[in-house]
Amino acid sequence: MKKTITAYGLAESIFSAMNTRDLSILEKNLAEEAVFDFPGTEKINGRRKILLFLKVLFRNYPTLQFTIEEVLIDGERACVVWNNEGKSREGTVYKNNGITYVRLSEGTIIYISDYFKDTSFVKQ
């Protein structure tokens, strides 16, 4: 039997994975058919593609730390208010604020969508 995780614990685990760059917990909690809607990209469909996208993000931003400001929960939905800072691989300092919306089904992540204050880094 798969252990289910609360919406709050799940939201925290996403940012823990981002800060430690250990995607194993996130991988266990992503549904196979999960969708990630990230600004400046097409929707990313499927666990494998989402994890690959995050690994590429880690290469492009070798330093990137998130701080959770607030987590709002409504049943199987979570909204995480965060800020982050880091450096790109070219050494450019990066800071942003945003919200990540997460939807669960039966204790696994089925949908993630990010909303940023500053999208200037996204290549059109």
Number of strands: 6
The number of distinct helices, counting runs of at least 4 residues, comes to 3
Q: What is the mean pLDDT?
A: 90
Strand order of the biggest β-sheet: 2-1-6-5-4-3
Fraction of residues in helix? 25-40%
Please write the CATH class name.
Alpha Beta
User: Could you state the order of secondary-structure elements as H and E?
Assistant: HHEEHEEEE
* Global geometry: globular
Whole-angstrom Rg = 14 Å
Uncertain segments? none
For the record, the count of structural domains works out to 1
CATH topology term: Nuclear Transport Factor 2, Chain: A
CATH architecture: Roll
Q: Please state roughly what percent of the residues sit in beta strands, choosing from under 5%, 5-15%, 15-25%, 25-35%, 35-45% or over 45%.
A: 35-45%
The biggest beta sheet, please?
6 strands, mixed
- As an assembly, this protein is single chain
Summarize the topology.
Blueprint: H1 7-20, H2 24-29, E1 30-37, E2 44-45, H3 47-60, E3 63-74, E4 77-87, E5 93-105, E6 108-116
Describe this protein's structure.
With about 120 residues, the protein is of the alpha+beta class. It has one domain (about 5-115): Nuclear Transport Factor 2, Chain: A (Roll). About 25% of the residues lie in helices and about 45% in strands. The chain contains 3 helices and 6 strands. The protein has a 6-stranded mixed beta sheet with strand order 2-1-6-5-4-3. The longest helix is centred in the first third of the chain and has 14 residues, at about 5-20. The N and C termini lie far apart (about 45 Å). The mean pLDDT is about 90.
